[in-house]
User: Fold this.
Amino acid sequence: MSVPVLLDCDPGHDDAIALLLALASPEVELLGVTTVAGNQTLEKTTANALRVLEFVDRGDVPVAAGAARPLLRDPFVAAYVHGESGLEGPDLPPAQGRPVREHAVDFLADRILGSDHPVTLVPVGPLTNVALLLARHPDAAGRLERIVLMGGSIAEGNVTPAAEFNIWADPEAAQRVFASGLDVTMIGLDVTHKALMTGEHAERLRAAGRTGRMVAELYDFFHEYHARTYGFEGSPIHDAVALAHAFRPGIVETVERHVVVDCASELCRGRTVVDLWRRTENEPNAHVGIGVDADAFLELLVERIATFP
Ligand code: BDR
Ligand code: CA
Assistant:
């Protein structure tokens, strides 16, 4: 049986690739896409989700726009990583279609309640929509199979020395998700920074067809930032690791630990404080990714994207 999945995203280069991985994977039944402000404004992330779907002739997948700003914090976009459009690199035509009329939070609830099988929610942007779902539709949230999110890290940051972007952008929302009592998996930088797509993968995709070429162009732009900033000889495709973990067990190794988000300090705003060595009596509230079979992930990714014409 395929896994019913809802993808909540802020495309975003790696979000776009995660979306394509979902579409290309028969193990996934993609019930819809919801968007949130993050890498770029809500208007741009929503348009980008539509542009990617339309590029591969999947305009039939519904897109619902959600929160335009974090719960409490000032909006902040990552144009320095993803460019002005949020998806710089390939020459993608403007969106033809429109998002559905329903707000993302209500759309998520409807799809969760309407599914014959429990749904896996994969949030790969700031967690604003998910926190609002918990507040507005606790019954629907309680029906989820699990949440596999991209965000946080045990030991490093990418927007500040202490924090990862998705959690930093809306720490109060993230804390609500970790404290929700739902089955939460955290795929953080400790994992995603160990699975770098390289120029070699990009060349294989470039030769595979127009979608492969588009993904290679996303990589070219995204990689430039990672080379400049971290000296990486490749690029993490963060969000696609979370998506892969939702349907392919065994690629990411997880441990059960307690996670709390720092919402109080400015210095460590959005840090996911993971009790890795069990220094407290707190019961685990998340499965935390600690290792990844990078080759297995990248082979899966390239193989699946290459199936698009
Ligand atoms: C996360 O932040 C965004 O820039 C990426 O799309 C990813 O979801 C990585 O920190
Ligand atoms: Ca993202």
User: Anything to note?
Assistant: The mean pLDDT is 98. Residues 9-10, 12, 14-15, 38-39, 124-125, 239 surround calcium ion (ligand 2) (CB under 6 Å). The first helix runs from residue 13 to 23. The chain has 13 helices and twelve strands.
